[in-house]
Amino acid sequence: MIVGVLFGLTEARRLRRDREERAALEAVHAMLTPAFADTFLVVQNLRDGAKPTEIQSDPRTLQAVRSVGIVIEGLGYAVFERIVPLRIVDNLVGGNIRVIWRKLRAYVEHERETSGSQKTFEWFQWLAEQLDNYDQGKTSLEKGAHEVYRDWKP
Predict the structure, then answer these.
(1) Nearest to 141 by CA among 100, 87, 80
(2) What is the residue-level pLDDT of the chain in tens, covering all 154 positions?
(3) Residue 81 belongs to some domain of the structure
(4) Does some domain include residue 146?
């Protein structure tokens, strides 16, 4: 009976890890499309704290901000529901999310004030804040994977 319980626990752990890996892979697929890459580059070229009027005055920029925000919003909710582990998000796109949040924070706050709702990109903000507070991450905005894992061996 003990062997059966141990086997069951081992299998449950393996299934959970498989599910996490599949969910992470799906998140990567959503972010590796040519369309997402194009919109991401538009947002990445904004200055930190870009004024809402700067974003709203250019339809391409506004569309890019909304597209990137929606993808990160979904990713944030997936982390909250523990579908995708925070460590995977941090290692994969954590730095990008932190940078994009710095650029879009003023715009998101403006949209919330204008709409009278705190729902605009709520999970995006939550994820950015979780990443800022995540103390198990080995990489940071100052030290990337190419430095931290320089001595990695297969």
Answers:
(1) 100
(2) 677 766 677 777 888 777 777 777 777 677 778 888 899 999 999 999 999 999 999 999 999 999 999 999 999 998 998 888 898 888 888 889 999 999 999 999 999 999 999 999 999 999 999 999 987 777 776 778 888 888 888 8
(3) yes
(4) no
Please check whether residue 41 lies inside any domain of the structure. Answer: yes
Say if 145 falls within a structural domain.
no
The single-letter code of the amino acid at 81 is: E
Contacts of 88 (CB under 8 A, 6+ apart): 20, 24
User: What's the length of the chain?
Assistant: 154
Which amino acid, residue 25?
L
Range of the domain at 93: 19-138
The pair of three-digit structure tokens given for residue 36, joined into one six-digit string:
């997402």
Angle at alpha carbon of residue 77, lines to 143 and 29, rounded to 5°: 65
Domain count along the chain? 1
